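Predict structure. Chain length: 127.
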Amino acid sequence: MSKKVNTQSKKLYTEYSEEIQNYLWTIHKFLNKKFGGINDEWISSLMMLADNLHIFNLCKEQIKKDGLMITDRFGTLVKHPLLKVMNDSQIQAVKMIEQFGLTPKAIAKLKLNDEENDDLLESLMNG
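Prediction complete.
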């Protein structure tokens, strides 16, 4: 990991909600502990994860305001178009989370010791 990326990484998630920032920093801590750092080539993937989580949250909030069904320009009641966007961003986020080995299934595959499993799962659940 280059020092340049390490210093820049502190600024990576400032445009996102505190919830997303905390989650991504938990992932950074896990990757640092597991691999001794964040590889330069992982930064783009982590940013894509942050983007997809952000899009998911934006859609969720808008759907809460508008409802699951909206009236289209013809006056017909249709399902909210952001449901598809929300679903797509969720799928992409889950794929990224699995790629970084952050699910219980992925952790089991990596055969981390129980202490690391407990630390990661606890930190991901508690923020």
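Summary: Confidence is low (pLDDT under 50) at residues 1-6.
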